[in-house]
Amino acid sequence: MPAKILSGLEVSAVVKERVRKAVNELKGQGVQPCLATVLVGDDSASATYVSSKQKTAKELGIATRDHRLKASFMQQELLDLVQLLNNDPKVHGILVQLPFPKHIDEFAITSSISLLKDVDGLTPYSAGMLQNGMAHLKPCTPSGIIEILDYYGIDVAGMDAVILNRSNLVGKPLAFMLLERNATVTICHSKTKGLAEKLRGGDLIVTAVGNRGRFTLTADMVKEGAVVIDVGTSRHGGNMAGDVDFDSVKEKASWITPVPGGVGPMTIAMLMKNTVSAASISRGMQ
Ligand SMILES: NC(=O)c1ccc[n+]([C@@H]2O[C@H](COP(=O)([O-])OP(=O)(O)OC[C@H]3O[C@@H](n4cnc5c(N)ncnc54)[C@H](OP(=O)(O)O)[C@@H]3O)[C@@H](O)[C@H]2O)c1
Predict the structure, then answer these.
(1) Nearest CA to ligand 1 atom 2
(2) Cβ < 6 Å from ligand 1: which residues?
């Protein structure tokens, strides 16, 4: 029997509706949630992601600031801008779109974001809190994956989970979230030996490579009945594609996310959720 679809579109609609209600409640209490986005350079994929985030925020009643900066913008100027946003009481969430141009140190910028406005969950503080199971603002893509699993009633406790990605944005935070839910987690990457065999051991596979030329998850790498989550985004045959050879893998998996319509919409929905959480925190502090 072909796999059932884990629809990020459906789950994100539910999350966004909750966010819309929370925004209205905050407005009723005199707080206008506000998300500031910062984009450096002219990478077209990044520009599209930022525009989608801006658009969704507006649809949900969240105010936005949109900072689009030339690729030549210097690191110190960027640090100054983040500081301005940190100190602006009307801004509740700050999202700096990655990756940056090469002359900018990603860690220096992400770690300069106020802990209370870290809606991408990328500061060392947020990462440390996540490791301790105490984070309030968690990275959006892995949170979106957990939200999908919860929505469809998939309990990962005791599962062997294989994550193909070790970035701070996806693989590492997701590993902690799955561990917290009692999965046994293996993280794989480009230097992993015996990758196909490790993937075949996964009751849950999360793949986030984003380059079909380098890696494609095919049916022979998937255990019968596995849950397959595809985070990767790339162009393949002129279309947007994930890492997974969907047509063959869906015949073996029990559940599978499509691309598009899987993890992508969840990342944006969870950013909105984090922005509202950050606005609520600021209200509590006031
Ligand atoms: N849908 C969404 O909302 C969403 C959100 C975030 C990211 N993404 C997508 O997810 C993908 C990853 O994003 P990222 O920021 O985490 O990128 P990244 O840092 O470049 O991560 C890619 C990962 O894939 C591994 N890898 C590369 N080639 C491989 C190979 N041949 N075999 C096995 N592993 C390999 C890399 O290993 P090494 O560490 O050894 O280099 C790395 O861990 C991208 O396509 C991105 O667009 C989507």
Answers:
(1) 264
(2) 141, 164-167, 169-171, 189-191, 195, 208-210, 214-215, 231-234, 263-264, 267
The alpha carbon of 27 and the centre of ligand 1 are apart by a number of angstroms equal to 38
Query: Which atom of ligand 1 is found nearest the CA of 45?
Result: 47
pTM over 0.90: yes
CA 209 – ligand 1 centroid, Å? 3
Cα–Cα distance, 241 to 260 (Å, whole number): 7
Give me the tens of pLDDT residue by residue for the chain, a chain 286 residues long.
899 999 999 999 999 999 999 999 999 999 999 999 999 999 998 999 999 999 999 999 999 999 999 999 999 999 999 999 999 999 999 999 999 999 999 999 999 999 999 999 999 999 999 999 999 999 999 999 999 999 999 999 999 999 999 999 999 999 999 999 999 999 999 999 999 999 999 999 999 999 999 999 999 999 999 999 999 998 888 888 999 999 999 999 999 999 999 999 999 999 999 999 999 988 776 5
Q: Which two tokens stand for residue 12?
A: 């994100």
Query: How long, in residues, is the chain?
Result: 286
Per the CB < 8 A criterion, the answer to whether 206 and 229 are in contact is yes
What domains can be seen in the chain, in order of their start residue?
Answer: 30-115 (3.40.50.10860), 140-264 (3.40.50.720)
